[in-house]
Amino acid sequence: MNIPPRLLLHTAFINSRLRDEGDKFSHFGGKIRVVEHRVRDGFLWDHEYPERPIYNESIEVRVGGDQVSHRWLSEGDDWHDVPRDPTGEYRIPLRSAGALAGVLAIKPGRWPDPELTKE
Fold first, then answer.
1. What confidence score (pLDDT) does residue 77 get?
2. Where are the beta strands (DSSP E) in the chain?
3. pTM above 0.70, yes or no
4. What is the gyration radius of the CA atoms in the chain, in angstroms?
5. If I label 77, which of 42, 46, 48, 85 is the partner at 20 to 30 A Cα–Cα?
């Protein structure tokens, strides 16, 4: 499997005039699911096995100004603040799993991002 080094999951323009006066955050929800798909070569035909989940988590992220926090829905209602690293990204490690490791990187910026609109 070839996963690109930069995978953009979401790009959005958020109109602050439409936001509730008391809400200082923009909320995003996401589901990260990785499944195993196996095919066994057979003499006359291949046999496909049902997919088996390797990783299945849901996350809620809120972004407001220079503050980012998250919660894994499987952990409950506790929000965790995410510090900004020197590159300007907020990095959230994926929940522990024996077969998978990774980081969800968030880098807030102006919209549209000039890097993304290059031709």
1. 86
2. 26-36, 39-40, 47-48, 52-64, 67-72, 80-82, 90-93, 103-106
3. no
4. 19
5. 85
Work out the mean pLDDT of the chain and round it to a whole number.
76
* Model pLDDT for residues 54-85, shown as the tens digit of each residue: 888 999 998 887 889 999 998 888 999 999 99
The H helix count followed by the E strand count for the chain is 0, 8
16 phi and psi, to 5 degrees?
A: -65, -20
- Identify any residues that bridge with 60 across adjacent strands, giving them in sequence order: 29, 71
Residues of the chain above pLDDT 90, percent? 19
User: In the chain, what are the domain boundaries?
Assistant: 25-106
Burial class (CB in 10 A: 0-12, 13-18, 19+), 67: middle
